[in-house]
Amino acid sequence: MASQEIILVIDFGSQYNQLIARRVREHKAYCRIVSPRISLKKIKEINPKGIILSGGPSSVYQKNAPRIDKKILRLGIPVLGICYGMQFLANACGGRVERAKKREYGYAELMVDDARDLFSGIPRQSQSWMSHGDKIIKVPPNMVPLAHTSNTRVAAFADRDAKIYGVQFHPEVAHTEQGMAILWNFLYRICRCSGDWTMASFINEAVQEIQSVVGDEKVVLGLSGGVDSSVTAVLMNKAIGKRLYCVFVDNGVLRKDEAVRVRDVFAKRLKVNLKVVDASKHFLRKLKGITDPERKRKIIGNEFIHIFEKEAKRIGNAKFLAQGTLYPDVIESKSAFGGPSATIKTHHNVGGLPKKMKLKLVEPLRDLFKDEVRLLGEEMGMPEDIVWRQPFPGPGLAVRIVGEVTKARCDILREVDYIIVNEIKKTGLYRKLWQSFGVLLPIKSVGVMGDERTYEHVVAIRAVTSQDAMTADWAKIPYDILAKISNRIINEVDGVNRVVYDISSKPPSTIEWE
Length: 514
Ligand code: XMP
Prior knowledge:
The chain is α/β, with parallel strands linked by helices. The chain contains 15 helices and 18 strands.
């Protein structure tokens, strides 16, 4: 997204690039991550307020180590090199870098020797986070050292005339006590940013960008009701109104009242152009007799594509497909230096669709993180229960019904799930949990109700805390809340006489049961 004030982060392959970008945005400056192959011409065109060179796994003396055109350093645009970025600067400006005898990894006491600009207001001594095996052994002629640690003589340097700065530690990680303040100094004392970037300005820029990319064409969007596709829909709607065609497919394995709710929120309240396709019977027919989890997933994925494609054709002449891809999705499917590499995660959304339908992609959230997307949704006035929704898998309840998926079993799980979410919301735990939901097991158990013997279904409550779903802990929900949920389920849902709580973490379990 074009911005008047932009900070460029050059991606030298650091695992912390995402963090650098979001720290810059937290300081109200707009930021974009670019490949080191970016040309001098392109940099001049963008005219950034500052450039941050990220860390990375390479050594500057390696043949294929990533580097930028050195002329970029002579443009007078402030530059901050972090870790490998600093070593690149040292090497490029006439200093020397060598493999250190002692690798420095973890906490290091940072001692500030020169507390002007970059270290202005920073205590003389503070904790910093280091992760490097190379070391600057000769400081370039024009550079002055600004800080050291017990192991690293030059932990920061500057060429103030050229506005070039380097830090060996990582200011972007929370372990570096003064990291945010140091980045603030770079952005405001050195780059002279005005700090006018907000989510509201992001909306304006995004709307303009969408309008200029899409022109007068039509755009289709697969709306799932989850946070990402919902925020994308509302943003696209702001930009192109009725030329956005959202398709919501009821696949029969959705949560209670989902289709009604989506229609109510998007079509009625937010005035989004929406087509709800009720394909529930079709999906359930396809799922009949299927118990293998992967086959369930495949059937649901393929049928979705099939139906979506049909609907898109009906709209006629749509040229674009809008998707709620976020920054972590982008970075996970790209290599460090901006080139293509093995995809870590295959996307479950509408994978394969654009290629087949020859649609161009519009991904207005691709520079943002999940929590920023939520802020964006709030800024656009979207209802809280959408913006703060927990993730829900594409294959829906089908991967939470162990065994065959039938309408009757879906109906039971819908009621169970509704009670769980409802009770969790009442306690204020909903936002703290990554997910909380019910699972229908393929067994029955004996119970007693009144004086009657019962032989009915067993359901599990699954609730986890997590940062990113890669790892997760089972949530330590207080017993009285679990008791209330269990009691309500058994009393209110016909056909269930036993509730169990899943106390497994990921790994070795997964969040979903299938
Ligand atoms: P697991 O079960 O692998 O899930 O620990 C990790 C996270 O991913 C979600 N999930 C999916 N999301 N399509 C999706 O959009 C899928 O096929 C899918 N499978 C799992 C799951 O809910 C959890 O948040």
